[in-house]
């Protein structure tokens, strides 16, 4: 089996599954309970929080655990927008964000907020100048992802964060779900006020994530109840998932650092090979892009057909974000990058893990060489 859909979800590490199971069985107490089982659970929660804070070089009080990236992005964006509504109602984001950001912003537009969707260049990136030009007196929030979930393009969030330090009224949110452990991002003193992570993208378990909320930044909670997570996210903490998240984060930082060269080589191999093939167009930027994502448009072949043909050969890839992949429409990301042309409708995403081998890439290419011409021939007959 060749799995090249790690941007949708990743295989949990054996050590992570073992940690989850042991915690769920041995330490099932509610961290809020006063008895011994609750106390032990609370201690484990504190240790996991400290471990993650140490890895990310932030304070423990700046971590809020969530159920994953979608909740995290909703909490950061809605929470910051509603908390600062008395100061303005204008939000800036980009046209190539994850659906959990775009749909959140569209929702806020129906509740009195105004949103500017910044364009991107042919490399899929926003510019600091465009951010500056979009700022208004009423601007209260900027939300720009770090690594694009479809193309791997890296946004200049460090430059944006540095400039926004001078804009005291404006909060800056970064969706770091795709970049975590693969593309470095410093949070401390970065100008980033809110940052989203998800465990299952880094070989942790689904249903666990976190939002970094810089000290002094206030967000309105989405959930109300017992006041867990410093009154930001009520609900009993997913202790096994959080403890497993801490382990996944540590192991992924180690393993992806060790595999950095092989990831880059596999990426270069796939990009060059696709460029050498007729009717294939590479959408991932040559430079300033993540080492684990390659996006290619296979002209004349619907992506869902290619995906199904590949999966019959036990090779598993995707097209758009998993949250939007069942919608048979052009990629919003590629449409924003290249316009509504054929390449926006035929994009495929190949996303690696640290375990992806050169032989996997070569087997993928061989399968594409067999599959794509046949799909194109059928399309020509049916036209």
Could you describe the 3D structure shown?
It comes from Salicibibacter cibarius. Its cofactor is pyridoxal 5'-phosphate. By secondary structure, the protein is of the alpha/beta class. It folds into two domains: 2-8 and 258-376, Aspartate Aminotransferase, domain 1 (Alpha-Beta Complex); 14-254, Aspartate Aminotransferase, domain 2 (3-Layer(aba) Sandwich). The protein has helices spanning 14-26, 36-56, 69-83, 99-109, 128-134, 157-164, 239-258, 260-275, 303-311, 332-338, 342-345, 358-382; strands at 2-3, 63-66, 90-94, 114-118, 139-143, 171-175, 194-198, 209-213, 280-282, 293-298, 315-316, 347-351. It has a seven-stranded mixed beta sheet with strand order 2-8-7-6-5-3-4, sandwiched between helices. The protein has a three-stranded antiparallel beta sheet with strand order 9-10-12. Helix 2 packs parallel to helix 7 (239-258), helix 8 (260-275) packs parallel to helix 12 and helix 9 (303-311) crosses helix 12 (358-382). The protein is globular. The mean pLDDT is 95.
